[in-house]
Design goal:
2 helices, mainly alpha, 86 residues, 69% helix
């Protein structure tokens, strides 16, 4: 039941954020008039986001963000499928 509630809140949040982004994009298209400027800005922002996400993943896997390594029981990388013990 808790999963369904979380899923509904997540879907509602996603829909609201998508609507806001769509309205902002329509306003920018009307204000800027040059679509190539928006295209290059979008590509640049996706580049920065990608670099940030990859860097964050590398830091989290190496344990440098938290200052210590995660216990081996939490890192089930063998693919054998098992539960994570608390």
């Amino acid at each position: 039941m808790g999963f369904a509630v979380g899923l509904l809140f997540g879907l509602g949040s996603w829909a609201a954020q998508s609507a806001v982004v769509a309205m902002m994009y329509k306003g920018l298209i009307k204000a800027v008039r040059d679509a190539s400027l928006l295209t290059s800005a979008g590509r640049l922002s996706l580049l920065f986001l990608g670099v940030f996400m990859i860097g964050l993943g590398v830091f989290l896997v190496n344990g440098r963000l938290s200052g210590h390594q995660a216990p081996r029981s939490c890192l089930n990388l063998s693919g054998a499928g098992g539960s994570i013990r608390p």
